Amino acid sequence: MSKSFNLALAQVLVTPGDVGGNLARAAERIATAARRGADIVLLPEALDCGWAHPSAREFAGEIPDGDACRQLRTAAKENGVFVCAGLAERETRSTQHGTRFFNSAVLIEPSGDVILHHRKVNELDFARELYSVGDRLGVAETPWGRAGLMICADAFVPGEVISRSLAMMGARFILSPCAWAVPTNHDNSREPYGQLWLDNYGPVARDFGVWIAGCSNVGPITAGEWAGRKCIGNSLVCGPGKLIAAQCRHGDSADEILLLQIEIA
Fold first, then answer.
1. Domain count, the chain
2. Which range of residues forms the domain containing residue 228?
3. Domain harbouring 110, CATH code
4. The pTM is what?
5. Chain segment 227-253, per-residue pLDDT in tens
6. Left (φ > 0), alpha (ψ -120 to 50) or beta: where does 134 sit?
């Protein structure tokens, strides 16, 4: 018997360094998606500080008990939904490297407990000046089967090895907080964004019969090598029987929620 759930892609504005504003918008989108019938709300990468933004050194918290993660746990519990989001993570336990920061993601169940915690493996070179790199993958049981978790560029490791490994571990759907960015002069009418993700999500969805959902933020990138670029949404779901099962609008102001029913065979 197939099982289905409603997935909400919350393609929210992320303002670099504005942790309070970003988390407030996320909480509002979680509540709105829950009222619309969502069972799982997927939010973008580095939701709190913005991707590769140096404010992570000041504001990143621990997982699961840092302030940002606790706020998302509270929102999941108050609204009775699963929440998946990317966060800047501070690791403060004593290591030979001292304090480390990670580009991380969590899957939170309606009880408010974190059931999956992933640290991005395939981070861009310049962002590794801020983030350390993850060293493991995981899956977790949900009412609709096993969920896998990755982050953005994890999807295009050669051979799609991360998403394929999650599918081999039994994931029936894979959630991916993302921050998809283009140069300011990108002309989407001449060069439609998204083929990279279709090329990497599609074969895994087809070969393993899994769903893969990537949710990007919208808004500017203001620090690092990509400063001046803009995140443009275009959030995407690929399914086992349909290459593009759902896609959000493109644009740096395309803040929206898209709801999709996911059928798990």
1. 1
2. 3-264
3. 3.60.110.10
4. 0.97
5. 999 999 999 999 998 999 999 999 999
6. beta
